[in-house]
Amino acid sequence: MLATNGTIGSVGGCHVAYSGKIVVNDATQYLGQGVVGASESAIYLTDSTVEHHGQGVVASRNSHIRVGQDINGSDVVKPVTVRNNTQNGITVGDASAATVVGSTIENNGNNGIFIGRSSSGQIGVGSLGLMAGVVVQNNTRHGIAVESSQATILGSTIQENHVDGIAVSNAGGSRIGIADGNAAYVGNTINANRGNGIRVVSGASAGSAATPSAGTARMPPPLTAGTASPSTTRQCISPARTRSGTMPPPGSPSSATAPPSSAIRASGCR
Q1: Tally of domains within the chain
Q2: Coil, strand, or helix at residue 144?
Q3: For 10, which of 144, 191, 217, 218 is 20 to 30 Å away at the CA?
């Protein structure tokens, strides 16, 4: 199905192009191409399963996809499963953008989520402040791959992928467990991936909030090109602090006073 000139449709199994909007709700899709938005289009995918395609869900050429949250940006998660596709589960490329919340991306034949070519991704955080983690597991390559692009990854579980949990490369950047604006740490569980938990190479950078020991929260050194974390990385939720190298937004301070230890413990650090 083709949506043009700002129209909105509600269908299953769709191709969206040329500045259209498509709403896919309560659909199970098999075979074929999956869900594709191209050429300044928008896709809102909720309460659906996308499986047994080549590419599962795709945004390309300045398009936008929202997975797990409806077009109105409501605070109710409407989970999507993207599984058993032969290529990437979700692909975001060519200056496109994606938000993915409350969904499961698993058993795909390449990366679980790929964000590349000057694109951006919000994983675990949606529109109007909705936060709901994503499970990215058992994909044939990386769980989440960020290449020449930017991503924020919050409150999610990235596990049992066959290469790295999160791979950042080619001058890409990621905020892993650090909310935009440094408002909070919203930790991830990165566990049992066959390669590294987090790998940063080829001029890329990543800021990662982790819990080095029980009852303590502090910012670890930023990951820079050529560094990697162990295959098991646990993070926590705590009031945010910044330090040089963690990619705070323009105009924000490079450091802040740490909250009292009682506030850190109460906020859910493990």
Answers
A1: 1
A2: strand
A3: 144
- Helix, strand, coil: what percent of the chain each, to 5? 5, 40, 55
Distance CA 183, CA 239 (A): 7
Beta bridge partners of 267: none
Answer yes or no: is 4 within a domain.
no
* Domain containing residue 255: 9-266
In a domain, 167, yes or no: yes
Place of tokens 């859910």: 268
pTM of this prediction? Answer: 0.75
Residue 1 lies in a domain: no
Place of tokens 């659906």: 48
Residues 123, 154 contacting (CB under 8 angstroms): yes
**Residues 21, 137, 79, 84: is their CA dihedral positive or negative?**
positive
How far is it, in rounded angstroms, from Cα 143 to Cα 147? 13
One digit per residue, pLDDT tens: the chain, 270 residues?
333 333 333 333 444 445 555 566 666 655 556 888 888 888 889 888 888 888 999 988 899 999 999 998 999 999 999 999 999 999 999 999 999 999 999 999 999 999 999 999 999 999 998 999 999 999 999 999 999 999 999 999 999 999 999 999 999 999 999 988 777 789 999 999 999 999 999 888 887 775 332 222 233 344 445 555 555 444 433 333 322 233 333 333 333 333 332 222 222 323
Most distant CA pair in the chain, distance: 55
The residue type at 78: K
Nearest to 57 by CA among 73, 76, 71, 41: 41
**Rounded-to-integer distance, Cα 54 and Cα 67, Å:** 18
